[in-house]
Design goal:
Low-confidence stretches: none
CATH superfamily of the largest domain: Aldehyde Dehydrogenase, Chain A, domain 1
Protein name: aldehyde dehydrogenase (NAD(+))
CATH class of the largest domain: Alpha Beta
Bound molecules: 2-aminohexanedioic acid
Enzyme class: oxidoreductase
Number of helices: 15
Structural class: alpha/beta
Largest sheet: 7 strands, mixed
Radius of gyration: 24 Å
Strand order of the largest sheet: 15-16-17-14-13-18-19
InterPro entries: Ald_DH/histidinol_DH (IPR016161), Ald_DH_C (IPR016163), Ald_DH_CS_GLU (IPR029510), Ald_DH_N (IPR016162), Aldehyde_DH_dom (IPR015590), ALDH7A1-like (IPR044638)
Strand content: 15-25%
CATH topology of the largest domain: Aldehyde Dehydrogenase, Chain A, domain 1
Oligomer: single chain
Shape: globular
Number of domains: 2
Family: Belongs to the aldehyde dehydrogenase family.
Helix content: 25-40%
Subunit structure: Homotetramer.
Distance between the termini: 80 Å
Number of strands: 20
């Protein structure tokens, strides 16, 4: 029987105004869940409900909120396999990756449960006698969190867990095509002892969400917007928030470079490129865009990379594969347009396009899904679309460089700045690269994707507005510093004016 799911606001199922079928991309005829989509009014109402519930939650001592986070972590861990299996079923992410994704929620809870007993403020010396200065972290209020479906549970947890820990309420709008996974995660969170209304999940399309968010910002019920998704939508959210004098947390696209130096361990670099390029079918924001390889080792690298891609196991994500299907038909449509252009402008190494019976990929194990060939394109030039645009699909470009400075320039050229990587055995190259690259994240001898959950995650340029998620850095997104001064001198001491001359 098909699952039926709807938004949950204040602990109660909310009304839907239309439905959407979330399908299994590995067997597109299979409906994973019938999702009731809410309208803008329900989104705005959810923000009002959240605001109401937030008052009490903010007064709950932070260590107690930390215990709720601990309980969420335990529940997720106990249900890890079923949640991962659902993620695989709904978005076609290979099961091992899906399990890793669920692990990332647990890691996030592990980190923040202790933060409930820290959430430190400071005592600060005053310039006047008998006066004490303090700082406190206050919750922002209500966070509206809008997330993509390529990481339908881990990435949302990067927002939800710290936001809740800091004493905020949340209205979460997950991607429709990953709604069943999101709903399952919501239920685990809700079962942890969170008071009703503190966490709400609203399924809605882009238009209704945007309208609902605009109303909520106008009504003053939302104080922070968190968004993970495309740079295009991120820009719109940024503009909307800017009009309301808010700065959102934006985690957007990437065109992530991998530089391969002449002194690199080539096999390691090939392994890294394979995982970064084709893990999650190239649909991570941290996926590899372009390999920038030194001209002296270009031929050797390309030969090994192309044959590794040819041997990669593609197919049913429930099995042991490097790559399953694309997430959803809408991404396949966009990718089709892109590879059409590629076919007209490039000679592709190996195959490109949809995997079919007549055009199989090695020991292909899939059937009836939106599967594409993992593709490598050599000879990409800096003015090329493939060099400049995020493809969000299984395609990797290769280009060459002569000097490290030139490689850094190429790495920065597309104007994104999320993740990057360099393969080298010389630490001087690694540090020089780190200094010059615009990316928020740098890997040395490791893939562009696969960040650990307690390091700052985020990008610059077209990849985001400099906000960072994960670890202690995200606390600055979900709390606002409050400064307090307490004068016990019994007179009016005036800052700057009553200070002794030096
Ligand atoms: C994303 O694709 O939005 O670092 C996030 C990684 C994952 C997160 C990716 N831990 O690749």
């Amino acid at each position: 029987m098909t699952r039926q799911i709807v938004s949950v606001v204040g602990g109660k199922d909310a009304a839907s105004f239309t439905t959407y079928d979330s399908t299994n991309p590995a067997r597109t005829s299979e409906v994973v869940a019938r999702v009731g989509l809410a309208d803008a009014g329900t989104f705005a109402a959810a923000c009002r409900t959240a605001k109401e519930a937030q008052r009490e939650w903010a007064r709950t001592p932070a260590p107690v909120r930390g215990r709720v986070i601990a309980s969420i972590g335990r529940l997720v861990e106990a249900n890890a396999e079923s949640l991962a299996a659902l993620v695989t079923e709904e978005i076609g992410k290979p099961y091992v990756e899906a399990l890793g994704e669920v692990r990332e929620i647990v890691d996030t809870c592990d980190f923040f449960l202790g933060e409930g007993r820290r959430l430190y403020g400071q005592t600060v010396p005053s310039e006047m006698p008998d006066k004490n200065l303090f700082t406190f972290r206050n919750p922002v209020g209500v966070a509206a969190v809008i997330t993509a479906g390529n990481f339908p549970v881990a990435v949302p947890s990067w927002y939800l867990v710290p936001a809740l820990l800091c004493g905020n309420a949340v209205v979460w709008k997950p991607a429709e095509y990953a709604a069943a996974s999101a709903h399952a995660m919501y239920r685990l969170f809700a079962a942890s002892g969170l008071p009703e209304g503190v966490l709400n999940v609203v399924f809605a399309d882009g238009v209704q969400t945007f309208e609902g968010l605009e109303t909520a910002l106008e009504e003053g019920t939302v104080q922070k917007v968190g968004f993970t998704g495309s740079s295009e939508v991120g820009r719109k959210i940024g503009e909307l928030c800017g009009r309301h004098l808010q700065s959102p947390c934006l985690e957007l696209g990437g065109k992530n470079p991998m530089v391969v130096m002449p002194d690199a361990d080539l096999d390691l670099a090939v392994e890294g490129a394979l995982f970064a390029g084709f893990g999650t079918a190239g649909q991570r924001c941290t996926s590899l865009g372009t390999v920038i390889v030194h001209e002296s080792i270009h031929d050797a690298f390309v030969e090994r990379f192309a044959s590794a891609v040819e041997e990669a196991v593609v197919g049913d994500p429930a099995g042991e594969v490097l790559m399953g299907p694309l997430l959803d038909q809408k991404f396949a449509d966009r990718f089709e347009e892109f590879i059409g252009w590629i076919a007209d402008h490039h000679t592709v190494l190996g195959k490109v396009g949809k995997i079919t019976r007549s055009e199989p990929h090695g020991d292909f194990t899939g059937e009836g899904g939106i599967y594409y060939h993992p593709t490598v394109v050599d000879g990409v030039t800096p003015e090329d679309r493939l060099f400049l645009e995020e493809t969000f699909g299984p395609i990797v470009g290769v280009t060459t460089f002569r000097t490290l400075d030139e490689a850094i320039e190429l790495a920065n050229l597309p104007g994104y700045g999320l993740s990057s990587s360099i393969y080298t055995t010389d630490p001087r190259h690694a540090f020089r690269f780190r200094e010059g690259v615009s990316a928020g994240m740098v890997s040395v001898n490791n893939s562009t994707s696969g960040a650990e959950a307690h390091l700052p995650f985020g990008g610059n340029g077209k990849s985001g507005n400099g906000s960072r998620q994960s670890g202690m850095w995200v606390l600055d997104q979900f709390t606002r510093w409050q400064a307090m001064n307490w004068d016990h001198s019994g007179r009016l001491q005036k800052a700057q004016m009553d200070v002794a001359d030096i």
